[in-house]
Write the structure tokens for this entry.
Amino acid sequence: MVKDIQCEQLDVMDYFKVRINQDGKIIYVDDAFLQFSGYDISELILEPFYKLMWEGKNVFYNVFAKNILHDQSTYFIALLKKKDGKCFWTVIKSTPYTHTDGSQRFLLEIKMLPTATVNEIKKVADAVLKIEEEVGVEYAEKYFEGLLEEKGMNFNEFIFDLLETTPKKLDKYFTIKK
């Protein structure tokens, strides 16, 4: 389970950019991400973004995929993995844009998840992953959607609440770069 995973901590100044197409496939990664993650560009281009997510495609990727389709910035918390298998907690800001060819694409800006939030997200992740393991992804998604409904929050509001921040403060956090 997630609670047992020990991950590397990003530096607060670390800032990575990844672009994906409407199918969730990686079409660009910046040099900083390549250097940090240990991947070669050829290992990532046109690969699904979930390849970078811990445990591959699961309920959290499905929630990510459903929520990214909005016409506004969306925020996510993700456990990403490096090529050597080490993981790192991140907060991701997804911003949709239209490419010159008319296709929809997404800029994913990746920053460090504040350490204080990691234990809280691990609790939610463990509950969801246990349901996924025991009865499947569909029921785990329904549980997570029910959790949001019970809290009276949409996905972004849940992230802001978890991070104890506001959209304005979180946007400002993404301007901090090396």
User: Anything to note?
Assistant: The chain is about 40% helix and 20% strand.
